[in-house]
Design goal:
InterPro entries: ASIL1/2-like, Myb_DNA-bind_4. Pfam families: Myb_DNA-bind_4. The protein has 3 helices and no strands. It is mainly alpha-helical. Helix 1 packs antiparallel against helix 2.
């Protein structure tokens, strides 16, 4: 039989965190905003062309000091590229929905 000892941890909430929540959704939104800002400046520097590996590493380096407080939350260049591609796909899907509905927006 294996025995585990559980020890309580001190937790601190951040500004605006609701009681009983992990705050992960807000942290993710903030990290995504930082990602889009970092990617956007590189994207415009490349005249709206594809970013190179070095550019993606620069994007990851811009995010990690602000949002990569632990090894688990640090983003790699590949993760940044995948997240941007996912956001682009979601944007195209939403844009197509609006175009197909004569400009009216419905929440899902």
């Amino acid at each position: 039989m294996v025995m585990f000892k559980v020890a309580p941890m001190e937790m601190t909430s951040f500004d605006g965190q609701k009681p009983g929540t992990s705050g992960l959704r807000k942290k993710t939104k903030e990290a995504t905003t930082t990602l889009v800002d970092a990617w956007g400046s590189r994207y415009l520097e490349q005249n709206r062309g594809n970013l190179r590996s070095k550019d993606w590493q620069d994007v990851a380096d811009a995010i990690n000091p602000r949002h990569g407080h632990t090894k688990r939350t640090r983003r790699t260049d590949v993760q940044c590229k995948n997240r941007i591609n996912t956001l682009k796909k979601k944007f195209k899907t939403e844009k197509a929905k609006i175009a197909g509905s004569n400009g009216t927006v419905t929440s899902s």
